[in-house]
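Support request, please re-run this one:
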Amino acid sequence: MLRKSPPLAALAALVLAPSALAHHPSGVSSTGGAGPIATVSASTLEAGQGTAGIFFEMVKIGPFSDAQLAAFAGQHIHAHSLDAILAPTLVYAYGVTSDLTVSARLPILVRKDIREGHHSHGPAGNTIDERGDASGIGDLTLLGQYRFLNNKATRTEAALLLGVKAPTGRTGVDDVFGVRFETEFQPGTGSWDGLVGLAFTQRSGGWSFDTNVLYQLATTGAQDTDLGDRLLYNAAVSYRLTGGPAASVGRMHLGALPEPMYHGGPKPTRKHRHEEPARPAGPSLDVVLELNGEWHGHQVQGGAEDPNSGGNVIYLSPGVRMAIGKWSGFASVGVPVVNGLYGIQAEPDWRLLTGIAVSF
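Re-run finished. Output below.
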């Protein structure tokens, strides 16, 4: 019997792609049998199968102290800080054919405790502006995954990823002083961005090895701001510890894409070819270990490049996923092993990805 993946596995592979730079959130993914959480798998949904889920991401950031922000302001460096980014997200994916899956992702973004130094030559000296939180609906991401290689003998798959990010998010949120936040802090970007990438999957017994790259070509959006291109790159190894795919559990792809981080089953049972021994139906538990990376280009506003933006971050992310019937849930915690941000920026301390999904 062909092995199926938990509903969340596929949804996470097409609608949330990890991000680690620039004050926007990242994402999540997954695949069949055992499979990744934030890495995009090459596996696709079956024709006519739909999956939907609610996912949550939190990025805890090591904020600058007031003394640091005041010192930066004294050097005429426009540095800012925030405490955390929260991103609850609705995701949906549908199998157009057995080799073509389309997915959509719509986040709500919350950036907590935004602060910046203010330079002054007066007697009070440099001060700290506590600007508050920025929250609202984010940009809608649409992603298509076409599996052009599906070698059942070797259990090797490869897929092309193509998509677009539409400017549906809020771009006019004000701070506590009534001043409009810069685009890097807004829930939406105001830009149309293109997405292109590749995904590869190799399975062996209860193991799955997955990797992908996804490039986001950013354009100029709100407040004449280009938040910078992004290259997302991931690798994962996962193993099914217990159980097997139940007849009602199907492949679900999540992983579509998000904004730059700081800036911010199946239908009724079908017949399947017996390519491997059937596993017992019932609850399953997968363990996952991933490397999730993102390179982010410099932000450009009004033609001027911001030297304190962009860079490269890589997370080491262990996680688990459980599936019961048509339901599936996961949790992953990422710890930065590379924090190569450009210029002066507050760095991430850790990242939590979790969610639940259902297939139908």
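The chain has two helices and 17 strands. The CA atoms of residues 47 and 96 lie 5 Å apart.
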